[in-house]
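Lecture notes, part 5. Sequence design as translation. It can be helpful to think of inverse folding as translation between two languages: the language of shapes and the language of residues. The source text, in structure tokens, appears below.
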């Protein structure tokens, strides 16, 4: 068997041969090691297929998918023997690349879920086969020498430029990164493909010439050095050629532009090969020459099948978008390339180009690519064209006729066709370059463009939406003031002046004492102070500017205790009713005994009567009595006093008890509840009660 870490092209294998089983040694890549298996080619499903045809397609595609799955399951050496020496496999893969449905083909939309699943399975199997064929190293043990790999794929035509282009079209969507790695590896291991690519670019330019010739046109860049053929004048144009020739030409253009765009999008390194042949200039000239005739032919020719006309219009529009995107890719990957022939005679092309990709970005790219070369006349022309195109894009679709002429055209058409709406007629005029005769003729012969057929013929003229009034929607802090001219009809103009007010100086302003005179009457009431006013009998004090004095009113407020009965937790009235000190009491001894008995009922303890002559009592006795009253009250309410705490503990170094440790932790956690830690809260409370002036 083959040795490990040796490339496949250097390996040899020993196999038995003949009825006697004699062993022989062969290279790992040898035709005799190929398995005898016939790969069936791909057959597409017809558009209008019957149930038997669908069943035949499913069975045929199933055989093809099973063969490819078998191929992918082979080991490395057997796989490459089958790929290199089995011609039926290459015919099978080529048939799929040639006949598989593209994006715009009707067959790309399967008629049933079974067909869609089978097509998806077969699509994946073909892609995985090409991906493995483009990989020269699958693992550390299974690989090919890079030079030998490049020779194998090139000499055996496993890959060529047409195949690579088809791979990009069919598998580019969703697999762009894998395809880029695959194609990059092919071009890296075999540089001969770059020379094949140069020949392919020449063939693409010949395709453009063929389309121009079939349309009876001449591209400026293609035939500038060649004499015009005498038979060119007798060539049919896009308007006069047969319908089938026009269909083939549109399909040819659509397939070519789609393929080139897919290839350059996935493998941008190929842009240099296209640029070396002046492809961008030729593409722009081709676009300017062919696209107007193609669009005119598809739009104005009479088709029996309107669905075919819509499909052709869709393909022409798709081709235009792809050509614009190709130009954008070439510009994005341009490095110090000549721009002198880039945008000459390309107003139509630049207009469509600027709609998808702003030209200002390309100007910035040009300045980055050519930092040392000054912007000469070529760049000036480029900027002038860009400014013109940008102005056209900003202004929108420019109407070639004036408003009066447009109204005249509408009136002329409506005289003959009064049942048609002005909106529909405007769309027809725009479509046919404001040619009223052509519009009337196409309407009467029912040969309108597909986009006009979809419109409502009674469509009115679109009404221009008026922007809301700025004055009605504005909002300002000076709205509705005395100088708001937008909401007031009359404004005092004497209070409005520009700059310094005329006839006014600083001295006059300081000497103006008008404001003092205005305040004089207010303060004159305070000038006269009268000690005594004689009130005549039968007159009221109000006649003399005096207020009546109500003694009862003042006495009422004198006995009120303002704020004394407010609800407050710290209020003394809520804790204990107000009592007159004993020293100030007047009464007999029986009244004093009654008050003391009431106090004893509240506290639950009978206190010893205090003699009248003992004005100052012993503080220690008072504290003892207060403690006794507090203990009695707590006992009555069921209050359990906290056990004594010991936070001092023993001297340092002798250890502490558990009780001391717990007491210290409790003190640390609750120290903010007492002492001086809540002085701000208590100060705020006193200030709120009016005890501290704010």
């Amino acid at each position: 068997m083959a040795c490990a870490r040796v490339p496949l092209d250097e390996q040899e294998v020993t196999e038995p041969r003949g009825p006697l089983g004699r062993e022989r040694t062969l290279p790992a890549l040898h035709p005799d090691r190929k398995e005898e298996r016939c790969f069936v080619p791909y057959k597409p499903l017809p558009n209008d297929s019957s149930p038997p045809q669908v069943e035949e397609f499913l069975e045929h595609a199933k055989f093809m998918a099973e063969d490819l799955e078998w191929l992918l399951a082979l080991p490395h050496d057997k796989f490459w023997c089958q790929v290199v020496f089995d011609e039926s496999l290459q015919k099978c893969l080529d048939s799929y690349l040639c006949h598989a449905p593209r994006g715009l083909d009707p067959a790309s939309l399967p008629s049933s879920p079974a067909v869609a699943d089978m097509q998806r399975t077969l699509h994946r199997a073909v892609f995985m086969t090409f991906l493995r064929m483009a990989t020269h190293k699958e693992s550390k043990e299974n690989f090919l020498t890079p030079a030998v790999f490049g020779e194998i794929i090139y000499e055996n035509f496993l890959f060529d430029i047409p195949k690579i282009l088809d791979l990009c079209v069919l598998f580019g969507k969703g697999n762009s990164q894998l395809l880029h790695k695959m194609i990059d590896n092919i071009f890296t291991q075999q540089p001969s493909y770059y020379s094949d690519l140069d020949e392919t670019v020449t063939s693409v330019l010949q395709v453009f010439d063929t389309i121009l010739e079939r349309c009876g046109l001449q591209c400026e860049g293609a035939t500038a050095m060649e004499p015009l053929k005498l038979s060119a004048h007798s060539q049919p144009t896009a308007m006069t050629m047969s319908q089938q020739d026009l269909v083939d030409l549109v399909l040819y253009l659509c397939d070519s532009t789609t393929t080139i765009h897919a290839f350059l999008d996935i493998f941008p390194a190929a842009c240099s090969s296209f640029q070396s042949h002046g492809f961008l200039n030729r593409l722009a000239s081709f676009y300017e020459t062919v696209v107007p005739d193609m669009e005119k032919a598809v739009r104005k020719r009479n088709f029996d099948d309107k669905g075919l006309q819509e499909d052709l219009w869709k393909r022409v529009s798709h081709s235009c978008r792809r050509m614009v995107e190709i130009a954008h890719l070439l510009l994005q990957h341009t490095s110090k390339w000549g721009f002198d022939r880039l945008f000459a005679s390309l107003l139509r092309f630049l207009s469509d180009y600027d709609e998808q990709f702003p030209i200002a970005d390309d100007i910035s790219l040009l300045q980055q690519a050519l930092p040392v070369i000054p912007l000469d006349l070529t760049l000036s022309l480029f900027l002038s064209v860009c400014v013109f195109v940008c102005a056209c894009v900003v202004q929108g679709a420019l109407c070639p006729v004036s408003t009066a002429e447009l109204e005249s055209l509408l009136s002329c058409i409506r005289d003959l066709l009064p049942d048609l709406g002005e909106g529909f007629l405007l769309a027809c005029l725009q479509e046919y370059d404001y040619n009223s005769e052509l519009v009337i003729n196409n309407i009467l012969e029912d040969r309108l463009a597909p986009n006009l057929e979809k419109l409502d013929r009674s469509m009115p003229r679109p009404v221009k939406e008026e922007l809301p009034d700025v004055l009605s929607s504005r909002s300002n802090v000076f709205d509705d003031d005395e100088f708001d001219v937008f909401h007031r009809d009359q404004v005092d103009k004497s209070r409005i002046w520009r700059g310094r007010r005329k006839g006014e100086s600083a001295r006059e302003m300081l000497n103006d004492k008008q404001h003092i005179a205005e305040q004089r009457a207010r303060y004159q009431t305070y000038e006269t102070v009268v000690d005594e006013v004689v009130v005549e009998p039968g007159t009221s004090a109000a006649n003399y500017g005096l207020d009546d004095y109500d003694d009862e009113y003042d006495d009422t407020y004198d006995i009120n205790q303002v704020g004394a009965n407010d609800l407050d937790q710290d209020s003394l009235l809520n804790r204990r009713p107000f009592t007159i000190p004993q020293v100030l009491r007047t009464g007999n001894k029986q009244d004093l005994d009654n008050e003391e008995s009431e106090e004893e009922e509240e506290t639950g303890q009978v206190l010893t009567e205090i003699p009248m002559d003992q004005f100052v009592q012993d503080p220690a006795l008072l504290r003892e009595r207060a403690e006794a009253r507090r203990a009695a009250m707590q006992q009555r309410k069921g209050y359990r006093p906290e056990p004594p705490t010991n936070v001092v503990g023993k001297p340092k170094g002798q250890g502490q008890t558990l009780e001391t440790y717990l007491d210290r932790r409790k003190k640390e956690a609750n120290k903010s509840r007492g002492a001086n830690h809540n002085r701000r809260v208590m100060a705020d409370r006193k200030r709120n009660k009016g005890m501290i002036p704010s």
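The translated text above is only one of many valid answers, since several sequences can fold into similar shapes. The radius of gyration is 53 Å.
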